[in-house]
Write a structure and sequence with these properties.
The protein has seven helices and no strands.
Length: about 180
């Protein structure tokens, strides 16, 4: 329940700050990056402090080295959470977090078998995971769309081929009529 509160609370706070004049925080995907950062710092930190034993117990018995799996996923969550803060690394970070949420879902199913509270049962856990997936996917799609839009406008990161100063976006190797030897654009 705490991760959901962290995500929703931080995202709402960022949107409120955006509405009060901080233009960068006005867009939902940007606010979600902040919410996801706080949430995954919280959950990633729990892999080492406070809940480590419970998280190790959540790993299904069919998987090897539960302690190592908890450590690796904790490090991945923290690294990806921090990477969300930079626009340049937000797409890969959101992609990694989306993958982790899907990959770790069996642990949630396994943990639901021993649920002690209603929010730890399978349906609430599944719905919460869907909210998290919607947030990471929203950030991922937004970042990919922005990168594609920049490339179409010719303002994306430079490719390996040198660009012609006369025709921005066209490779010198391609020549004025398209790729070498084709005689077309």
């Amino acid at each position: 329940m705490e991760p959901l509160v962290a995500l929703v609370g931080t995202t709402c706070l960022a949107l409120i700050i955006g509405a009060c004049g901080v233009r960068r925080l006005r867009r939902l995907p940007t606010a979600l990056r902040g919410g996801l950062t706080v949430m995954f710092l919280l959950t990633g930190g729990a892999h080492f402090i406070g809940m480590r034993d419970e998280l190790v117990a959540m790993v299904p018995p069919a998987l090897p080295a539960p302690g190592l799996l908890v450590t690796v996923t904790g490090v991945a969550e923290i690294a990806a959470a921090l990477a969300l803060l930079r626009r340049e690394s937000a797409a890969p970070a959101a992609g990694l977090l989306t993958f982790l949420l899907i990959a770790m879902f069996p642990a949630n199913v396994y943990a639901a078998d021993t649920a002690e509270t209603w929010w730890d049962e399978l349906i609430p856990r599944t719905l919460t995971q869907l909210v998290f997936l919607a947030a990471t996917t929203t950030v991922l799609v937004d970042q990919v769309r922005a990168a594609l839009s920049m490339r179409r406008q010719g303002i994306g990161p430079p490719s390996d081929a040198p660009r012609s100063p006369a025709t921005p976006g066209r490779s010198i190797a391609a020549g004025p009529d398209g790729p070498p030897g084709t005689g077309r654009v």
